[in-house]
Amino acid sequence: MDIINNLDEPQKTSEKDADKKPKVVEAEIVEEEPKNKKKKKSSPGVPPNSQDILSNLGDIMNKLGVNMFQMSGNMPGDNTSDTDEKQASATPSAASVSKKSPLPSLEIIKKFSYTPRQIRDYLDRYVISQSEAKKVLATAICDHYNHIRRCMENPELKTKDYAKHNVIMLGPTGVGKTYLMRCIARLIGVPFIKADATKFSETGYIGYDVEDIIRDLIKTADGDTELAQFGIVYLDEIDKIAGHGSSGTKDVSGRGIQINLLKLMEDTDVKVIGQTDMMGQMQAMMAMQGGKKRASSISTKFILFIVSGAFENLSEIVRRRLGNTVIGFNYANQKEESVPDSESKYLHQAQTADLVKFGFEPEFIGRLPVRVALDELSVDDIEEILCTAENGIMDQYVECFKGYGIELKPSKDAMRLIAEAASAEKTGARGILTVLERLLREFKFELPGTGIKNLSLCSDLLKNPKGYLQKILKDNVCSIRKCNIAEVDDFEKRFLTEFSIQLKFTNEAIAELVLQAEKQSKTVRGICEDLFRNYQHGLTIVAKNTDKTEFLLDVIAVKDPDGYLSDLIRNSFDQKIA
Predict the structure, then answer these.
(1) CA distance 317 to 528
(2) Is the pLDDT of residue 142 over 60?
(3) Closest CA to 218 of 228, 210, 231, 208
(4) How many separate domains does the chain show?
(5) Parallel, antiparallel or unpaired: strands 269-271 and 297-299
(6) Are residues 255 and 156 both part of a single domain?
(7) Residues 29, 540 contacting (CB under 8 angstroms)
(8) Taking the CB of residue 373, how many other CB atoms lie within 10 A of it?
């Protein structure tokens, strides 16, 4: 406390340098290969010379540290491994769902028994509002997987024609389209892949080939093609591949992508390895050398496709069809009267003709029989997301501050103000993250390492974040200085551990270090490392000359570190000569 009382009033506090990185544990699959083979058996259909080439290629890859079989897990179509150990995981959460159950991957689908109400109730825990969308999606999912389950029970049903319940979701950004699908895939535990429709190209040479979606789905299923054929493909930004509609021109590339996609959405066979996938082809050749039989294609007959987009101009097309637009002198008045009408109101009334006029091919829209529009989020909806949604954005910020040892306590009145500010962003639930980041960014930067343990997210903070932060720092001066003093002790310990030299600062030196850190708005650790960056080499010389490994540094060493070190070195040589 004597050191604290000797310090002047701080101008600005600084953050503790928290440079610890989270440890990530990665599972690694190691396949044992027989060593010192005297005789290689010929694989059927592979000439001996080809076997030598493949063997040499494998040796080269191994020398480079690349395990060809390990890079992408099991090869697609490899049924030689135990299916009991495979996980039907689309996301990390889906993997955890499947790990809890001892059922083999396909058993998840064979035992599918959810009802639409059960799925809707599960979605209510995570997604606020959008009751109509939850009902539509829950029903479509249950219809689809109940049909698959019945086909497994009765193979004769596979031969009958069946129209898949592919879904198209329409709605503005940030209303929960993607989150709904992730929650559903996590619940039922099937392979799930999300792709952005804007990255596709018609040819696949420039951009992403649409068939690569299915190959990515196989990777998500850990190479299990049998399981991947019952997965879910979710395509976002689907409205971006629409043509120019009724403008008189056609987007040829977009039309080509639609035609390629509609083939996938109905029933077609996709090659497991693409023509441009050189690594996949080499893996297949290596597998052929081992005599393993692998599936060459996968059927999309039972893959459920769900697409979504904002469809910004579609509401205007629907409005015109319904006769709600006017021209002439009354246009300004009509425009004012129509302001309360949201775009989602008209998206609910969209028909096939509207989507065709928007720029989609009739055949493409015909493959998406289930349609649902999502509503814009109101201020009340956003407030409910903040207060009640499981694993919501506010929960994430509470955990973020907890990582710094600070407990964030949101108040009820602040929730309403945050919801109003997020609604003004016009980006749905994403506006919450924008508002919270803008409000709390400085607090996350300044408070860690200050000893402050609690932060109240209240209306005062929202109204004046900078003033509230300065008040917190002023009220906790003693705590902040104690933490700064502790950083000096940490520097002494690190120096001893790294260089086997013991430094000890006097109380006056510590006070000066803390004062410099406050004036420069830096951490004490940063000040120490900057001032004493040459002390490792200099004190090593002194230790050799004098056999001394402990050094007491006073305030002069802090104010003139280079001059103080030079004097120590000069005196050490004088002692050695004497």
Answers:
(1) 66
(2) yes
(3) 228
(4) 3
(5) antiparallel
(6) yes
(7) no
(8) 25
CB 200 within 8 A of CB 207: yes
285 and 405 both lie in a single domain: no
CB environment 392-406: b (16+ within 10 A), e (fewer): bbbeebbeebeebeb
- Average pLDDT, stretch 170-178? 89
As to burial, measured by CB atoms within 10 angstroms (0-12 exposed, 13-18 middle, 19+ buried), residue 17 is middle
Domain assignment of residue 195, yes or no: yes
Higher pLDDT, 62 or 36: 62
Q: Which two tokens stand for residue 502?
A: 């013991």
Question: How would you write 41-56 as a 3-class SS string?
Answer: CCCCCCCHHHHHHHHH
All residues at 6 or more sequence positions from 564 whose CB lies less than 8 Å from its CB, including other chains? 553, 556, 557
Find the range with the poorest average confidence among 14-23, 155-164, 401-410, 437-446: 14-23
Global pTM?
0.69
Q: How many residues are listed for the chain in this entry?
A: 578
Closest CA to 461 of 396, 533, 410: 410
Place of tokens 């999606």: 137
pLDDT, one tens digit per residue, over 466-514 is: 999 999 999 999 999 999 999 999 999 999 999 999 999 999 999 999 9
**Boundaries of domain holding 554:** 2-14+478-577
* Residue 79 belongs to some domain of the structure: no
Alpha-helical regions (H) of 391-476: 393-402, 412-424, 430-446, 459-463, 465-475
Residue 6 forms part of a structural domain: yes
Residue 150 near residue 208, CB atoms below 8 Å: no
Rg (alpha carbons) of the chain, rounded to whole number? 33
**Residue ranges in 269-392 assigned as alpha helix (H):** 278-289, 314-321, 331-337, 343-347, 352-358, 362-366, 379-388
Residue 323 lies in a domain: no
Read off the pLDDT band of 326 (50, 70, 90).
very low
